[in-house]
Amino acid sequence: MKEFNYTIIGGGCSGLSLAYELEIHNKLKDKTLAIIEPRLEYKKDKTWSFWKTTDHNFEDCVKKSWKNFSINITNKTKYLECNDYPYQSIDSQLFYEKIITKLKKNKNIGFFKDIKEVKLENSFIFNSVPLIGSRENKLWQHFKGVEIETTKNVFDDEIINLMDFDCQQLDSVHFFYTLPYKKNKALVETTWLSDMNNDLEMDYDDQLKNYIENRLNIKKYKINYMEKGAIPLFYTSNIDEKNKMNIGTAGCMTRLSTGYTFLNIQEHSRFIRENIENIKNVKKYEIKKKYEFFDKILLRVLNRHPKEIPNIFFKMFNNSPETVIKFLSNKSNMLEDLLIIFKTPTKWLFIKALLKI
Ligand SMILES: Cc1cc2nc3c(=O)[nH]c(=O)nc-3n(C[C@H](O)[C@H](O)[C@H](O)COP(=O)(O)OP(=O)(O)OC[C@H]3O[C@@H](n4cnc5c(N)ncnc54)[C@H](O)[C@@H]3O)c2cc1C
Question: What is the DSSP string of 225-238?
């Protein structure tokens, strides 16, 4: 069996982002890397979207960028600008193709389907396979999205609808999300924040059909692509060891209040590349604790008072959009954090949650 200096378990978003980052910075010229990925072929399976608050390696995989977004609750809509931090959408197929093409040119990189095919004893392992454990009382962001094409031009392709909470909520939190790529093409997603125990929430297809036909008033359309997923809004139970570091979702790179992970993965990859020569001794890379703290309180409020969440998100945007974007992207300073918390009209819920009343 072959031995490698580094092994990446899971060739998904974080595994491939890390391998690419190491490759383009010449860190695999004299070192070997094994990538373990069971999938048989790479095809489009995700659309990664985020406010671009930091540079990344995948500008050429951006499907579209927007400088305007809206958020709705019943009878109210806010229209907001994000000129400094455009909202970008990455096509996973372009991302996979770009990375695999590059990595295949380096003979020091080997691709394997099963971990049993490589010798791990002396290898440093980057693991991206999360250990979920018990699902009981755990919150998820779960969703289904369809990319639709309409016969007429019906979308304003300059503005995304980030969260439309004006829909059935049940006892959890529910919103629709619309990314118009063209005037006749958009990704429409139904998204829930819940423990996934309520079967009604799983009628994604009916929810999408009803929203597209009755709310967006689109009667003639075809579905070109579908994506479905569930992002854990809790940290998975993977533990870093002496010769092993967790990355991606398994490495706690998800912002628990929003599910945003992609840019955190890119920043983590950069950190690993900068420290690769001393990787066994490097301090664990983490999203700042203050965000973990805020997110846990928000999720506690979500558990106890789910009906308040649409209003909390809506009112959060009473602050400047830049402040909120920085806060949700782990880039805010202390003053901006305080503005967010104290301008939230339901701040007493946060204080109560904080005191666990
Ligand atoms: C449908 C979807 C849409 C998302 N959209 C966004 C978004 O818009 N913005 C955002 O910031 N985040 C988004 N996320 C969250 C997050 O960015 C993604 O989940 C991202 O793919 C996480 O990267 P990862 O490497 O941790 O996991 P993955 O990309 O899932 O990679 C893990 C890899 O491990 C492989 N694997 C599984 N089991 C094994 C095993 N036993 N051995 C070896 N390999 C194994 C899998 O095949 C997979 O390729 C989305 C998530 C989903 C599911």
Answer: EEEEEEEESS----
